[in-house]
Amino acid sequence: MDRQDYYVEYYEVLDRVLSDYVNHLREEKEYWLKIGGHDVGVPLINLLFWQFTWHREEYDRLRKEGKSCGEALGSVKEILADKQVEEWGRQEEEYKIYDHEWYEALAPYGGQLVIYIYNARQLAYLTPLIERLEEPVLLLSEYEIPDETELPDFVTAITLEFTKTAPLINPFLKEWFPLIFQYANTFDILMRILQPKGLIFLEGCHYQQLLLATIGRDYGIPTLCIQQGWPSLMHAAFRRMPYRYYLMWGEGFRTLWEKHNPLPDFVPTGYMYQVEPRNETKKECVTFFLQGPFFLSDKRYLQEMICLIGTVAAEFPARRFLVREHPEFRIGEEVRMEWEQIPNIEMVTDGKLAEVFARTRVGVAHYSSSLMEGVAHGAVPLVYDPTEGSRYSPDVEAEGLGMIAKTKEELIGGLSRILENYGDFEQRMEKGQPLWFQATGEETLRNMVGFIKEKMPPVTLKEIYVVDTDTLTRERPVGVSGLLRCKNCEDFLEMCIDSCIDGLDELIVVYHDCTDRTPEILRQKAAQYPDKIRVFEYQPSVYPIDLDDEEFEKAKLLSPDSIHTLAGYCNYALSKASYRYAVKIDADQIYFTDRLKHICDAYRSDKKVRFNVTECISYNLYRAYLDSFNRIEMRPFRWLERIALWTHALYASYLEKMIIRYKVPVSMSGINLFRKDREWMVGLGQEHPEPDSKEILPPFNGVRDTFFFEVSADRIFRYVTETKPDGRHRGLEVMCCPNEILDAGFCWFHLRALMKEHEETLKNIEKYEDILNNYDSMTNVIIDELEGYKKAYARERRTVIENGKEAIYEENKVEEQDVILLLDRFGYAKTVDVATYERNKEAADSENKHIVPCKNTGKVCIFTNTGKMHQVKVSDIPYGKFRDKSVPIDNLGNYDSAQEEIVYLCAEEELKDAKLLFVTRQSMLKQVAGEEFLVSKRTTAATKLQEADEVVAVIKVLEEQNIVLQTEGGYFLRFLLSEVPEKKKGAVGVRGMKLQKSDRIEQIYLFADGVDTKGSYQEKEVSLNRLKLNKRDGKGTKTRL
Please, are residues 567 and 466 in contact by the beta-carbon 8 Å criterion? Predict the structure, then answer.
């Protein structure tokens, strides 16, 4: 047979040409391939390879016309030769990664394992491995992972986007290979911010993966790639891979991989798919695995294979033939319809690959990876390769695993031989399987997880949370960052944030070991102030302020940079500050907003100020007052206190000018509340009940723990331990400032005492709930109270108890009957019997908005647009004649027509064995079993809504129906009801339709196949059953007016 193509030759020649081109650049102008110290030669070869695959058929044609290899590849060489730029100065400015816009958002994920995701198929393949890692993982995805994708809680997914800042310079790459230039800058910034403990890739044949692995390797980050398939043609995309480790299926692939990849350590760990136990009665099919017209195949070969399937199926009418398309290339509808007429051909494209292999006895393909994968599942590979220029690798015929056919006759003969002697082939496969597949399924996953844990050990909390003081030296914009440290602060947290947020440029909140609603409140506040609030979690354990003897001895031995102290906790918050000045905020303080904003404005101000003599004198008088108080116990100099109070306005002016001109550190004071003899009081100086607050001076009543300072390397918190005169041990965070700290006066209320009283109330609530819910507790309370009454009233009975006839009262039972609920458009309701309704049906239907058949002993369920369900007893609704007076439905239950609208009304008994479809304005859909609404409460949450969303429809549905969503903008989307999952009533649901900006769902239609259903948009009629049937979460079709 004559050679039919030159495809294999083309890839070999192209690889040599691209390699020579890059080597030439490296020898002549090495810096053209360097960007930020990273050599991008290998990723560049890969990129060019994918770009020049389109030249394959032209090369084949020119070679068949008698051209030489060089002549046939001439256009490729011309394109490469044109890529020139002028010489440039190669200096790159030193770039501080802390200044990048991504730093604050990504820094919390530093030190984690990073997994690069190229497409949705890769995520699906890697998900079982990710779930078993059970450690923080960051997914770096090339595509936007849908919100409904279920990922473990320890996984964070971010969508890759190019950096707007490009600190790495290379005009050659920027001009001719902008993708390499943009990705290199982006990956370099990401690696410097994240400093991951390891990088994991799948398949590893794309230039983005090679580039990220190269940059990661340059930063000393371990890189690991996992074999996904098997490239029977080892083309340029699978050569020169820079990964440190490559996890392959089995030892048999080592030689084939190492031939073109000298750098990685190839480690056999196994094949990730689970192999089902072989069922000979089930495993009877012949499966054709189709490829698209790529690499060794083209449209001619694909068409030949398609025709061959019908021919072979006719030769073996008793044999079942399965056809599986390539996920990135589907055949035409005409071929599908033709195959549907052949009874022993079945399409299995959308089925799970493992299930297909479980039914496959023989796998047929040109060069598919599935041929070798089939060996793991007991499927004999039959290679159909009609060309002279290629040979499937590994040679399945030489290895005794299968056969290779060059013609249709050889294929039919080979298939007959395999089917007749399947037992012999099966034995050879079982014998050779350990060589090619080290393990399968769960065993493979355990091997992979063990290897990853060994080579990429977890980063310690210390490495994550110890603050590098160099981060505090970077240049920051003028502004004020608030530092708020939280642990179980739900009581006053919202008020605290609302009181201080207006004055600050940002608020850094770090919470630790919270068991209350603090994290939830912080998320809500961050959503309310997205441009100002950033929230972080501090995971290390922290010694409390008050220490017992054992804790005190351990705390004294802690290193200065320990992450287990309050100082380490505060310094972590400080390291997240974006602005030049910072202020420590306490969660139990409510700030005087205007006063706080006035001080912050002074720090932000750059205006010129001058001091006058009276302001300076007032300051010195105030200092003298402080000195007299501190030195003389009996405070004889009361006149100094009065003068200090009289000159307070001048001192305030002096303070403001000192802040504006010198940016001095300032301490804020506040009003501490305490309770004595059931009265609220403000403690001043010696009158304060707190032992740590005796030194507080009026009018500056409050501990100096809230202060402003400039962020710098020498302004960090340090940990100190102390023992009070009363024997109490304490561990505190302190900040030493080289300059004097000035007092700014009252700026907040301290609510510590309120919190204590609140805690006592909560304890009482817990006690009362125990009494109500626990029969034994209630019995003990009753016994105690009766014992008390017995002691208080210890005297003989003065009355006589005699036996009397028991009185029995019987309540008349209501006879159950069918009634009709009538609810008019004004919200007035009444019930009538069925006969009355039938006599007045025409009038009733025209006058009433809702007509619901129900039982007089049952309930009516009202579903509203706010996501609530209200229940009303039918017996509470007036019953009578058709023209009798109705009453507002608002008066019969919790439904409020002023705040909500009715979207669905039904009898309670209708919900049994029913399913309800919920649809919201923002296109969130779900099905809910009706039994979930059979509750005793008068009002319950029927569904969970996102912010600014509302329910547009609640519909009782059947199993097989079509859904059409219509938007206000005129978009229609039709899909099957079966695509909407059944969820609990507390779930949000899934997205039904991708809405355009500012568009919302307006109408929903349900109908069965074949039913002519009409809709309308702007008075134009739309035939809904003629709309194209799509998948859920599409954009829909715009109606033409």
Answer: no
* Residue reference for tokens 């449209």: 299
Output the CA–CA distances (angstroms, integers) from residue 616 to 325, 642, 645, 651, 653, in the order listed: 86, 17, 15, 8, 10
| CA distances to 748, 787, 789 from 797, in Å | 62, 16, 14
Our CA dihedral for 709, 712, 713, 717, rounded to 10 degrees, sits at: 20
Rounded Cα distance between 864 and 945, Å, is 12
Q: Which residues, at least 6 apart from 495, have a Cβ–Cβ distance to it below 8 Å?
A: 590
Q: What's the CA gap between 644 and 667, in Å, rounded? A: 18
DSSP-derived 3-state class of residue 518: helix
**3-state DSSP assignment of residue 721:** strand
Sequence-separated contacts (24+) of 273-277 with Cβ below 8 Å = 273/353, 273/354, 273/357, 273/373, 273/376, 273/440, 273/441, 274/354, 274/440, 274/441, 274/442, 275/354, 275/357, 275/376, 275/377, 275/440, 275/441, 276/354, 276/357, 276/358, 276/377
Token couple for 876? 């509470």
Cα separation, 833 vs 882, in Å, equals 9
Taking only the tens place, the pLDDT of each residue in 19-70 is 999 998 888 777 888 898 899 999 999 999 998 888 888 888 888 888 888 8
Residue 533 CB: number of other CB atoms within 10 A? 21
- Residue pair 839/845 in contact (Cβ under 8 Å)? The answer is no
pLDDT digits (tens, 9 = 90+) for 428-470: 998 888 999 999 999 999 999 999 999 998 766 666 778 888 7
Q: Using DSSP bridges, classify how beta strands 818-824 and 828-833 pair: parallel, antiparallel or unpaired.
A: antiparallel
Residue 372's nearest CA partner among 202, 227, 230, 253 is 230
* Residue in the block written with tokens 């000035």: 742
Nearest to 669 by CA among 585, 743, 587, 586: 743
Does a cis peptide bond (omega within 30 degrees of 0) precede residue 394?
yes
Distance (Å, rounded) from C-alpha 210 to C-alpha 223?
10
Query: Is the model's pTM score more than 0.85?
Result: no
Burial of 154 (C-beta count, 10 Å sphere; 0-12/13-18/19+): middle
Q: ∠ at Cα 61 (60, 66), nearest 5°? A: 95
